[in-house]
Amino acid sequence: MDRMQAQLEVYNPMNKLLKAVCVFSTTLFASYNITAAEMVGEPQLSQSSETSPWRMNAGVMIRHIGATSFSAKVGAAQGLATGVGPETGYADRSYDDGFVNQGAATPATGLTTFFEYQDISQVSGGNLVYTATGGTGLSTPAKVKDDDDDVAAPYIGVTYTLVSREDFKFGVTVGFSAAELDSAARSTIDETAVTTVDSYALGAVVLLGAPYTGTFAGPGPLIDNVPTDRVNSSTLVGTRDYRYSLDTDLYSLVMGGDLSWDLTATTYLRCSAGVIMNIADWSGQYSGHTVAAGATTVSSLSDSESDQDVLWGFYSELGAGVALSEQWSFEGFFRYDWSEDLKVEIGSSKFETSLTGPSVGLGFVCHF
Questions:
Q1: What is the pLDDT along the chain (368 residues), one digit of tens a residue?
Q2: How far is CA 274 from the centre of its chain?
Q3: pTM tops 0.90, yes or no
């Protein structure tokens, strides 16, 4: 007996909920004067719509959002060691094992006596070879993307009929929808150490013993001030790991014209087109970690930002509906948006989301 009483107590809240639903349904039908005969009989498009110009619709649509791309505004750069100077043209050039500067004879002949080398091993194959370390380089960062996404967007709209001619109606419409967009991606960039090797052809020049340091005015052996050949080589020293995320609350307002056509007493087609205003309330962040070749994190960086952007575009929509009663209809539609892209820059990273794409929706229409 106690067990039966306990079970009844468990089901008691459910009974209360069912009673509440019944009371709500009865009140809703009564508020719109929907009689049992009307529910059983064939529904028709609202007769009041012939005199009242207002129509409200609400429901949920699935909005297709394009891919979000992420990229770091770094890389594709090579910084040579300080002092090596340009590859061409007269200049003073410094290396780890000496220097080649302009001398008194350089402007007239392109030759110089003002150079230094530290070891006889630098003379190789008829060339005087210098090495400079300390340069750095970054690989080109690949643009990564988060895939296209389909998001649910509740919507509500109001249409006001301006012209009514038999089965055709034309009016203006305003609609509002909201959606949440979440995107994330990851990319890597290689960090390298750059070594520069410059070679100066000696020809018939005979060098003195090492180490040797010439003077600006001479006298002494003469070599070219400009290197005959330059080779830059890179060695991987680490990897930069970038992680990106962009969260956006997207609010869309459409304003346009609406044309409807009653196919039968219970079905209709409609089309609309106009302007769309997307309000993007976004929050983005990125972080980067440099990992040395020995898998040790040697540095890190991060940045975040949030803001709102207004993005304009156009839309076109085609829908069809069926009457459920004099006041209510059920409707489906297809819509396509052409919109500006959401473009965000945070620190050294760039984010871009495409808002152009199709949507499909289902909802209810109230004629009043």
A1: 343 344 334 334 334 333 433 433 333 334 334 333 343 344 545 444 456 899 999 999 999 999 898 887 665 556 788 889 899 999 999 999 999 999 999 999 999 999 999 999 999 888 999 999 988 887 766 678 888 899 999 999 999 999 998 889 999 999 999 999 999 888 888 888 899 999 999 988 888 888 999 999 988 999 999 999 999 998 888 887 888 899 999 999 999 999 999 999 999 999 999 999 999 999 999 887 777 655 555 567 788 999 999 999 999 999 999 999 989 999 999 999 999 999 998 887 889 999 999 999 999 999 88
A2: 26
A3: no
User: Using CA atoms, how far apart are residues 145 and 185, in angstroms rounded to an integer?
Assistant: 6
Q: Rounded to the nearest 5 degrees, what angle is found at the Cα of 283, between the Cα atoms of 278 and 287?
A: 140
What single DSSP character describes residue 340? P
Q: Please, what is the end-to-end C-alpha distance for the chain in angstroms?
A: 55
**Could you give the CA distance from residue 2 to residue 9 in angstroms, rounded to a whole number?**
11
φ and ψ at 138, to 5 degrees?
A: -130, 140
Cis peptide before 154 (omega within 30 of 0): no
Residue with tokens 């014209």: 257
